[in-house]
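**User:**
If convenient, please work through this fold.
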Amino acid sequence: MMRKILLSFAMLACVASSKIQAQEKLPDFGKIDMADMLLKDCPFDKSANAMNLIRTENVVFTVDGYTGAPKITTEYRLRIKIFDESGFKNASVSIPYVGNSRISKVTDIEGVMFTLDDQGNIVTQKLDKDQIFKEKAKGKTAHNEVRFTFPNLKKGAVIEYRYTKINKTGFHIAPWFFQELLPSRFTKCSITYPSGIGDMKYHFVASLPIEKDSSENTYNKSFYNEGKRAFTMRNVPAFKPEPLMTCLQDNLQRVEFAMMNKGFFSSDDNFRWSMYNIELLHSASFGLQFTQAIPGSEAFIDSVKALKDTGEIINRVYQYVKREISWNGEQTFFSGDLAECIKDKSGSSAEMNILLLNLLRKANINCFPVLISTRDNGKIDRSFPTLSQFNAVDILTVNRDTVFVLDCTQKNLSYKTTPANVLNCEALIVDKDVHKWVMISDRRALMNTELYINAQMDSTGVMHGMGRIIYTGIAKAEEIKDEEKEKKKDSKELLDSDTPEDLKIDSSTTEHENDDSDTLLHRINFHATLSNTDNLYFLNPFMFSLFKKNPFKDSIRYSDIDFGCNQSYVTRILVLVPENFSVEDLPKSIAIRTEDSSILFKREFLTANNQVLIRHSFNFNRALFSSDEYAGLKTFFDKVYALINEQIVLKKKED
């Protein structure tokens, strides 16, 4: 009898899903009107090289009546009009999913392209199955990809594709972004959920009009009651990214969801967060992993417990996890079995960090898991309690009154440096005794770059020299975060890609690339031919500068500014000038600061005994600025970049 009820419930869910779509009569998949084929540009966003004609998702959330296991089935559909060749990139599609088919999979992929022939007739070309590629990563929970590209693309084409993604582990529905980098004529999200066990709460972060639709199917107040929600937005302009803005998701028009259990209903947000705390501590994918036995780690734990310095214990365990486990690319806070992670030597961010917590506690180090929404995932809204806002778990520990935030996916970062992807983010400590919100901040200059150059000019105006570039903290991690990029990196790229053509790197070496220190050192040997007009030669003081392009050129700013972290850049250049040259013109020493002195630029020029000394410093003592502060920030950077064109003028003496 129970099986028949479950089958009936599943059939009703499918019917309900179809009804939601039917409420808005959209063109059938694979069918198109001539009006869309003849469309020359986006009516409400004329600069767009492509636009979404239709962009929808239909989510069906179910819970197994026997096991209580959740399943989220999402049908995606996207129809895109290509206006010109710069929009061709939208015809290359990548769909990520978790590798284990028992957890997540992508099915029912279909694609079609519409073009006009020479006679103006619509030609329909279907995507062949052999044009769909599945790229599998290592590890059962690694992120895989389905990829396909529409062939024979041309201007004016319309591409359309749809697919179904199934997630068998999540209770959390991802936000629906009405807005993206393409304008959308019609974008809609529909959700069907089991209202018999909970309710779907939603929260808008949007200024454009939203059409809402909801309904309820009840079956004598049973477990199988269904709720339905649908949200539509029309004529949504493309989002225009701005330099150094906060997370893209924070700035997009969207709706966020929270599936809440009946027992969570309360007007008190703190109560709901506390319920999540209890739920996580008793979860097999979270709290129950904290004390799990880790095969093969016993001897290692005994060895670190013998150490007397807490910092050394933390470092040893941190390096052990990073050495033994390779990150599979999955960013999550739900962990699989840690023993399996050790066996495979591969794991998600949650598995690596919960393993770190597990081993640190066995080494008698006081530490806590903290739920985080990384910078790329967007800010937390504490007034809308849902775990779906988080995408990571990091580990918080203390040594001598100093708090450290550890993330084992940060391969090139020491435990002493706060990871850039969680700086200035709110985090939730999950613990039976210490359960509270904390702000992850760090006033230190975590990104430090120092450049020291010693050079000598010859009598013909060619400068030869050597230099040291020292990257410390996050600067080191940013410089070498991708191993494949490092292997391909040419020595000339050690400096900015905009390095003048007359500056040539002759050789370079790298030190401390693979150790656990916070410092990376590049040594370079170079030569440069100074530009000249007759007997006047020009030495560019910013020849080695990392700041060659002003990021703030627009007169108006809509998004907040995020420099990531406090930063420090120091440049010292000493040039020995030959006897047949004299210093004809030396720019003035100057200091420029923002109104609140949070950013300071300083340059100094000194000359004596045929030597020219150039010193620059650029210090950022604040990382976040609101869009309201943009005018003052732009004025500051305009003044700084106006100095870049100022040259040291050297005069060659007559023979």
